[in-house]
Design brief:
five-stranded antiparallel β-sheet; 128 residues; alpha+beta
């Protein structure tokens, strides 16, 4: 089940062309990913593990501008071993135009040892 939120583009989000800056999209991708994890995972699990990014793939489909309302959603596409693939999509709230689609590979680490660890069934079920 996707996790969603809405935002509105502010002046600080824009680049020299008055579009949303690519770096800002990256920040939003990371922000919603962390929010989803913190919302779904019990604190006991959060205290034992951390996630690190292995790879981002971002497709920029259409620009967004000042005051545009953006609908952001994220979900886990698949998990295998220590790797989880998370999808984030951003749509213009009014026109439903796809703005950005990203796929990020996250690796689960033991918080103490910083070594990769298999994603448990308990964690997988939180996001299915």
């Amino acid at each position: 089940m996707p996790y969603t939120k809405q935002i509105e583009v502010t002046l600080e989000d824009l680049d020299d062309l008055n579009h949303v800056n690519n770096v800002r999209y990256m920040q939003w991708i990371q922000d919603i990913s962390k929010e989803h994890w913190r919302k779904k995972a019990p604190i006991e699990i959060q205290e034992q593990v951390i996630w690190v990014v292995l790879k981002h793939t971002i497709e920029y489909k259409s620009p967004a501008f000042l005051k545009d309302p953006i609908h952001i959603s994220t979900y886990i596409e698949k998990s295998k071993g220590a790797i989880s693939t998370r999808i984030v999509e951003m749509f213009h709230e009014i026109t439903n135009t796809l703005l950005v689609r990203s796929s990020t590979e996250w690796c689960l680490l033991n918080k103490d040892t910083k070594r990769p660890m298999r994603i448990s069934e308990d964690i997988q079920q939180l996001f299915s």
